[in-house]
Amino acid sequence: MIFEGSLSVKAIIKAKRRKVDRVYIDKAKHSKDISYLLHLCQMDNIEVLRTDRETIDKMASGKTHGGILCEANERVYQNIDDIITDNSFICLLEGIEDPFNLGYIFRSLYSSGCTGVLMNSRNLATSDSIIVKSSAGASEFINIVQSDDLVNDLAYLKTKGIKCLAAYRNNACVYTKVDYTKPVLIGIGGEMRGLSKEVINMMDGHIYIPYANDFRNALNASSATSVIAYEILRQRSEDN
Length: 240
Description:
elongated
């Protein structure tokens, strides 16, 4: 797979969750960022090819690669126990198909301290490059578990003392009225289908984001995730 841009390539190398075959750099580019990237490649014995911009343009799918690409294998994903910590903050994602939205969500979750993402098993290979780039590399660092049975995994997490809450308006309380300082899982569904009934039935409660007016449409999943994730970070920062 081809990944484009300095942020993506550096994240892939540093996260070490893919085997990197080689890195391509525009031979006309020279900067501190390029020097740092060359250093990373040298440390991991990654082949670097300095080539012309035309060659890189032909390999890339977009025009914002900045003269930097890498070839790398599929990502290694984590197991359910890898996302459980002393004070877990887990996000369950269901029904979110757009790779740009997934990337934006991973960026918000990683930066707000999420310990891991639980999502349905799916082949992300065709959209990996978009996800890595739109997440500014965060998708390479955050723990991701691909689940074959979300209901079973939720049941297991609950045995570990993790409170499970759905972003779902029915019989819900305002999201700021919940204590997030203890281990918690937040379920976020896509705008089209939302969370499945089976997943909702496993939740310990529901939360919602109030609006300033009578707007009746849901926030997109990326926006809703950011709002809730940073409330969790705010509470945990105050708690410390």
